């Protein structure tokens, strides 16, 4: 069940995350130039409407089609999305998340049907016209049928979200959000569910609280502070570094092992999340776009004019409540841990890596003495790729760590990049990824590419082994 939810949520997030930059761009233009913005400009504010009505849905539709069938699927997905956009007067994010993948799937099936049946010399003619004709059919279908249906569903969801917010029930969502994050459903919750609702709200109200519910770093910060103050052993020693990565870097996955090694601490982060959400409601706080990653810097950048106090108040309240509640469980847990203890945290980190989304049967192939899973003999290394689920979280942090290590070894010429696991560049010589994603990475990477599973992206012996091969 968890794997199915992760897979579905990861697919939804895969349509949104590659377009976060465009969403942030639109959010900044909105925050600065609308009549209630930081520097109102009537002329530049004209950009806001077309970007949310056309640009963002088409980008999402393209990403959805591309996930299913590469560039050709992306083109048909974007084309089909245009039907639901024109067929409705509301931003068609949900419609794009339907028509994008559907368009990619249809052209994929069509190509499979006519493969090997095209006369020599007619390939380009058939490929272009088959895609064009299918695109036309999909646009008409989307315009007349799917668009109105999705518009009705979107309106219903928006009304439900508005009712929940007005009834002050949003804090209860923390009961689902915080455990969901620890189960690696964070991207699915934020980008697959809250982002489309939030973007639609921004068009109507200029901001949305839904951008704050999952991204607020306060609850995680409170938990880590509790370990720093009351913890023992490796948990206490590693907490300060984790705080920096979590709060300033926005990598929330860093605090998941601290919950898993002492599961009662989930009560602390839930309490912190509920308190923060209630505070956001009381202050009528919201953001103009989704902050990604969930760093304090990103949240502040996406805060509309006049909204800083409410956003900061929610973060502070969430931190304090999470710290106070988590401290109870951390102190009780630390009573059974000596100052040198750390086995539980190491085990929890390994569990976190194993819980990262992977297809059924693709779970970790771990070795007791090594974290490596090399697929061929070492050769000349020009490019190393870090791959994670979205290509924007832990992999970005890991790239920075390995670049420093390579520089210290005098090997600055080696290119190190990050990528989603389903888009690993084919010219990669070495791929590093979470242990739970190894099999997925091996299927996407070019044949013969060396693929390594990593348990800890910050400090792993795999880095030393890779550097020796460079």
Automatic annotation (TrEMBL):
PROSITE patterns registered for this protein in UniProt: PTS_EIIB_TYPE_2, PTS_EIIC_TYPE_2
Enzyme class: transferase
This protein's record includes keyword Transferase: yes
Domain of life where this protein originates: Bacteria
GO terms, biological process: phosphoenolpyruvate-dependent sugar phosphotransferase system
GO MF term (any one): protein-N(PI)-phosphohistidine-mannitol phosphotransferase system transmembrane transporter activity
Residues annotated as domain PTS EIIC type-2: 8-323
Keywords for this protein: Cell membrane, Membrane, Phosphoprotein, Phosphotransferase system, Sugar transport, Transferase, Transmembrane, Transmembrane helix, Transport
Transmembrane segments: 12-39, 51-69, 76-99, 133-157, 209-230, 308-330
Subcellular location: Cell membrane
Protein name per the record: PTS system mannitol-specific EIICB component
Protein species of origin: Sporomusa termitida
Record gene name: mtlA
